[in-house]
Amino acid sequence: MDHFHTRTHKLKGNISPDIQENIKYTTQIMQDCNDLVQKQFKIGIDHEISIYIVYMDGLVNTEMLQESVIRPLLQDSFPQERTAISQYVIESADWKWIDTMEDAMTAVLSGNTILFLGGEARAILFSSKLFPTRGVQNADQEVAIVGPKDSFTESLRMNTALIRRRIRDTRLKVIQKQIGTRSKTDYALMYIEDLVQKDILNKIQKQMDKICVDGIFDNGMLQQYLEKDSKTPFPLYQLTQRPDKVASSIMEGRIAVVLDNSPMVLLLPVTFNVFFQASDDYYNRWEITTFVRILRYIAAIISIGLPGFYVAIAGFHPEVLPTPFLLALISAREGVPFPVIVEVLLMELSFELLREAGIRLPGQLGGTMGVVGGLIVGQAAVDAHLVSTIVVIVVALTAIATFSIPNELFTSAFRLMKFFLIILCAFWGLYGFFLGFLAMFIHLFYLENYGVPYAHPMVEERGRLSTAFQDFMVRYPLKRMKYRPEFTKEGARIRQKEDGDEK
Length: 503
Fold this sequence. Notes:
Elements: H1 2-11, H2 19-29, E1 36-43, E2 49-56, H3 62-73, H4 83-89, E3 95-98, H5 101-109, E4 113-117, E5 123-126, H6 156-164, E6 172-179, E7 185-192, H7 198-210, H8 219-226, E8 238-240, H9 243-250, E9 255-259, E10 265-268, H10 286-315, H11 323-332, H12 340-360, H13 363-383, H14 389-403, H15 408-446, E11 448-449, E12 452-453
Antiparallel strand pairs: 1-2, 2-4, 3-5, 4-5, 6-7, 7-9, 8-10, 9-10, 11-12
Helix pairs in contact: 6-9, 10-14, 10-15, 12-13, 12-14
């Protein structure tokens, strides 16, 4: 880091009116950068004005640069003053003067073009960015049956445009800065001015400004630097690839962090219940959405507690089972040489290995690996009397319940808590089961995110019924969701007018 600060100090010199000094400086700083393009020529009737153009090959729109900058400069029909170049010649609308070599080199590395003029102690910066990127595609991680199908890409400006397209409001602000001392990655904070809580916005801006690291390449890295409490498996930030989800969150007073090179957008603050909300929840009727959300909460309990519950019952409290069920359990475990805890851990770890292998294998091969591997391993383990059929059913139900939760980061926390609960149940049976859930709930109730309780609205600090219950397990009809949740600042929580109210 010290080396970087030394190099940065060198870059902070002003641009010299002697164009040869600028050429020498650029050549020295960009030494061994073979993708740097440098063009030097003279223009004017008497060829009196020296021009030096610098840009990075592969990051600029060379056609635009040729037609809007270089071609007009090579014409002789303009006044001889250097200021006339910017006033009469340049055919690009997006340009500005810069004064330091640091700004010039950062602009070149960002895909812009710099034009140095002999005799001028400043340079012209042209916006000529044309990064290699993929087009807007379908959301593959947050699939929705109804609603928009587009997703974010790795381009910052394309991502902000997808959000702008949905919120055509002048109060939607985009604060763009850079992060990473070497990567200098562009990022943008997006929020609606009259809905966001200013103290939360100020905290986030201060946090972003304090981050001093070589490079940030994805929002998954950024959220780890932003976390104050890293001693929790539960995500304190929400990542999404859907523009419609980001737009609706911004209109609730939340803040979106759009990072260049990342196809995911960071949303904050968050609460426990936002991870159970899917985009198409608001495009379906409220009865269907409520039913599905209740299923998701049940699935969350099953994904954490079912393997541990089985270990507790089979290992410590078989007497609580009805006699036919107990006989079936004894019959299924006949010939299995391992204790219940070993057999459950063996199947759970095998499933986790299959899941990881399926993710890493390309395309359709990954899905085939998961299905075929699960069937073969499960059946072979039963036939070899390594595990019982009931354990296979328990692990399969746990996996299905895990996949029912619409957020991958949130699901990862449940996968860890599942093993925590299995270990407790292996030592203390049902007592460990209930103590584990109690410890987890106490932990959730103590967490907070920028002053917002993580377990909100189950934890209500103000002693009144929260409007967030209208979008909790039961999703009210849209016409009755008249108020925004607690993310929004006081006095701006009315979402729609009452019937008969004057607009």
